[in-house]
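Problem 12. The chain below contains 692 residues. Write out its predicted structure in token notation.
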Amino acid sequence: MRADEELSIFAENLRQEAIIRSELEGREEFRGDAFTDILIGYLTDAGDLDDAIVCYHKARGEEVSGYAVSVERDCLDLIIAIHTQSVPPVTVTKTEVETAFKRLLGFLTRALGDSHGSIEEASPAHDMALTIHSLKSTLKQVRLFLLTDGRTTEVKRTTGTFQDIPVSYHVWDIERLFRCATSGQHREPIEIDFQEMFGDSVPCLPMPADACDYRAYLAIMSGDVLARLHEEYGPRILERNVRSFLQAKGKVNRGIQQTIVECPERFLAYNNGISVTAAEIRLEKRRDGSQGITWARDLQIVNGGQTTASIHHAMKRERADVSRVHVQAKLSVIDPECVDELVPLISRYANSQNKVNEADFFANDQLHVGLEKLSRIIWAPAVSGAQRQTRWFYERARGQYQDARGREPTPARKREFSAVNPPSQKFTKADLAKFENTWDQLPQSVSLGAEKNFRVFTTRLAERKQLEPDHKYFERLVAKAILFRRAEKIVHEQKFGGYRANIVTYSLALILNRTSQRIDLERIWRAQDISPALAEFITMVSRVVHDSLVNPPNGRNVTEWYKREECWKRVSELPLVIPKGVQAELISVERTASREVDHGLNGADRTERRLIEELANVPAETWFRLSKWAKETGTLERWQRSLAYDLGRLAGQGRDPSPKQAKQGTRILHEARKLGFQNLDSDGVASTKEES
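Solution.
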């Protein structure tokens, strides 16, 4: 297939995805917003953006499609989209590109002035302008992004200034997106010409060449080189595997700052250095006869994000001269076929100076791989009298759905694939995190944005240690997807005017809080829909939640307010009466109930359910005897004796232990038996049954 044909197919897939998403959310008139949101996803994967907010506003001489503000509130990203919807892609002229950037700057000018006063106060655009206005005293960098499904002839633009603030320009057209999406990577590799950027190579010392899959060098990098790389590439240069940890947002290390400002020449002696990887480098002989690195491709700082960000911070905020700062760098040049295996290990083992959670390295592959496999074999029930069943397609990596459809050999087979796997039944890792965190009543996390919410979910997943997905978990997850997406349509129909996504997650979280998560997911799975009673309840709750969200205390910014835990605390205390029709559908909490309550990530997987069932057969009296025996003999830890007593109380009440209690209870039983505990039956005879 020719390159132009492949590009047209990619453009058509992008167009269809925007159509499907806008229809799925019941907002066909906001197809441009859906397009912007999709491309923000691509740029987030590429490491160029981090959870930008879609927010369209247009007025005379100004236009904007979305924005993002760094945690330190010193960097502003403004986005404008040109959505042509043309296939094959048409040319977006240089004049159109220039006009788009001028309109972005027009909006920025008014926002930093007082434009929020002329925008509808209850709209997200007002929040956007107000947020930008509040950055006047802290703003150090502005990045302007133009996103389009057309072709541009735009070459790389030089950085300019706006009111003495550095401004960089970034154009992502259909060809650049296509290269990024089809390169086998989820980002564009960074290419750095040290000679061109800094006028000199980076001095280095090669290690003996006895390794087969990588080459290593010890290099000395100056502070101004690292600071410039951080400013130019931001999170992209810190992206590999530990991006969520290495973005070094928030407070920087005071000790590092103090050294940079007060005695920069001692930085090399005090600091442990950084670890860097690259796919390829070029070397030269320097004047003193040593070797130097002149160019590097796919350069990534896999350990040392805090150091790099601190140097940049000192240069920008403290106006420190960082040219006298030097940092040792261990550079590993990795063979391409070993990148995915070796770089994560380098990231993991190099990050020892600060504690790094498993969640920072990978997103629990067991869960995502398992869900992918289940989604390819589980059929959803046929509904509305239809004979044909369908599947819910889990997209573990961006583009899997279109790749799978594209592999079908004929148009008829492609139509068959779409019929079996409807585009409306595709869901992603970000969706998974959104559904699960909403179910576990974390709407403030969901409101942070797709990328940050996924990090929260990943951290929770890592703390849980293990989650083995099975048919039951997958079916319940799909039921949560159906519940969430139906809520999206219901909220859209209320025509609140803004904050739809936040109203949805907060409304469902409030319902789940008041019902103790007793929504019958198996019923939703079988019907592939929610009941009329539940739909009516969501409608009612969404109105109450909307009024609370858009009226934050003390006139706070709504966009910032709904990301805070205090917001959820306030919403969770709203008065709410559960209608009788909904009450009748709720799962009973009795052990004999035919339905099992889903407790989200705090619930049990297949292995844990088996443990719980086995432990539920242990009589309450056994636990009480064990607790008393352990106290009298001085065996077991105090917490183990206490847990044994608690397990006895649960058994006496006919309630099941939690997964954690079941695991620890099993261990306590085994340990007690090894130490001499004998479980006596009612006749005083030692029981030989071994609980497992």
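Discussion. Residues 241-252, 352-364, 680-692 have pLDDT under 50 and may be disordered. Students who got a different answer should revisit the alignment rule from Section 12.3.
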